[in-house]
């Protein structure tokens, strides 16, 4: 780094990006050893694994989210609202698109941002595989805005069924039986159980029909077969119609059309059948990419085309020694953020970069208040340990607490936990607006 006060720019305030900005802010920003700038197209952060709870109203993103500007002021970094649109590696600058308000009026113009080191952490978006009708008729859960949009539609349909005072049912079809689709299915039954508490007693869980659609021969295809089988049993017991080996040919106003031309009727359609890095990454024509737009990186997480550009999180294509790829999970983003933080500090000291080592701590699937199922990887054995019930639920919650600790510190995380306990007494268990 040539400058005496180098400028480190992080694009994307997801789990990895926000954790990295926070830690660099503490170690460099507050000590005036570097300028740390976080750029995101949103004003606040919500942990992505919780978006299905925002979608159902179990979690209020306005209360439980992190406001970047306020967080930056306390943790030694700067925040800039903007949408990453172009990159000039030779001149070490990136371009931010004009920022518009909800009425289409320009708030901010085109802007150029210089950097000495750049970290790309723009995450992932749903991959519709160019299936006809999906963009037009489906909801997605890539951001808290999309989760809110689904939530409002869900409330409208709950109200419609309740006030119609008939035997009509609400049909919800979810394509993609990965963690998002599975956890959303269970959470929908949970909020249906809560409706009677808030006066919508004619919209019962018996009137809720959920179709969980998976093209493969098993739900949760990335997880061990024992977990998939256990989760399938739990979902079937709840009343979810699990449809495996079912390929969707297109979406229409009435629902999904399968490859064998069968209609799966749906009042609400949600697509969660795969992820890819945002298309603008490919459109830049700068990086080496894999088939889902992820940026190829070297062992130290620098891009294969520029040593001054790091990539972390879901948009990062990092190949493991066995030939597999690091999965797009929150634990991966957390570990990548830690690695890049150490490497940036090593660069300031003139030390060589260290290789990223992915450690799989297991996988957990949370079926709302009904059950939690998964596997844990221990240090004493190479085999995974199957867990479910209260122990699995405790471990699942601890993952979010680890994220909070990384961005808030131990004291505030404890205070937030205490505040959540109090708020459960005074605020509704479901967001109804």
Automatic annotation (TrEMBL):
Its cofactor is FAD. It comes from the Bacteria. Keywords: FAD, Flavoprotein, Oxidoreductase. SUPFAM superfamilies: FAD/NAD(P)-binding domain. One of its GO terms (biological process) is aerobic electron transport chain. One of its GO terms (molecular function) is NAD(P)H dehydrogenase (quinone) activity. This is NAD(P)/FAD-dependent oxidoreductase. It comes from Thalassomonas viridans.
């Amino acid at each position: 780094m040539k400058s005496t006060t180098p400028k480190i720019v992080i694009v994307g305030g997801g789990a990895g990006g926000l954790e990295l900005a926070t830690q660099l802010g503490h170690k460099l920003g507050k000590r005036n050893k570097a300028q740390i700038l976080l750029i995101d197209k949103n004003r606040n952060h919500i942990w992505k694994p919780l978006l299905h709870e925002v979608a159902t109203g179990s979690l209020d993103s306005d209360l439980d989210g992190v406001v970047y500007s306020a967080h930056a002021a306390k943790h030694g970094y700067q925040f800039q609202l903007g949408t990453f649109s172009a990159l000039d590696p030779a001149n070490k600058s990136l371009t931010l698109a004009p920022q518009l308000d909800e009425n289409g009026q320009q708030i901010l113009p085109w802007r150029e941002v210089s950097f000495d080191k750049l970290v790309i952490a723009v995450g992932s978006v749903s991959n519709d595989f160019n299936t006809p009708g999906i963009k037009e008729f489906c909801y997605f859960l890539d951001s808290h805005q999309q989760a809110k949009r689904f939530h409002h539609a869900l409330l409208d349909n709950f109200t419609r069924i309740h006030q119609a005072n008939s035997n009509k049912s609400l049909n919800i079809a979810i394509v993609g039986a990965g963690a998002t689709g599975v956890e959303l299915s269970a959470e929908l039954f949970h909020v249906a159980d809560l409706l009677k508490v808030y006066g919508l007693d004619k919209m019962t869980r018996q009137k809720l029909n959920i179709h969980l659609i998976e093209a493969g021969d098993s739900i949760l295809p990335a997880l061990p077969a024992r977990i998939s089988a256990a989760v399938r049993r739990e979902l079937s017991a709840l009343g979810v119609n699990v449809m495996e080996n079912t390929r969707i040919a297109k979406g229409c106003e009435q629902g999904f059309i399968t490859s064998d031309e069968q209609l799966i009727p749906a009042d609400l359609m949600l697509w969660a059948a795969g992820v890819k890095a945002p298309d603008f990454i490919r459109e830049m024509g700068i990086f080496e990419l894999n088939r889902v737009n992820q940026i190829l990186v070297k062992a130290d997480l620098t891009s294969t085309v520029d040593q001054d550009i790091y990539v972390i999180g879901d948009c990062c294509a990092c190949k493991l020694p066995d030939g597999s790829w690091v999965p797009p999970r929150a634990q991966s983003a957390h570990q990548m953020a830690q690695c890049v933080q150490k490497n940036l500090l090593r660069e300031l000291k003139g030390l060589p970069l260290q290789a990223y080592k992915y450690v799989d701590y297991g996988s957990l699937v949370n079926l709302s208040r009904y059950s939690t199922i998964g596997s844990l990887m221990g240090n004493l054995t190479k085999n995974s340990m199957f867990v479910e019930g209260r122990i699995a639920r405790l471990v699942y919650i601890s993952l979010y607490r680890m994220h909070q600790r990384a961005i808030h510190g131990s004291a505030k995380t404890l205070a937030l936990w205490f505040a959540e306990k109090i708020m459960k007494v005074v605020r509704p268990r479901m967001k109804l607006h």
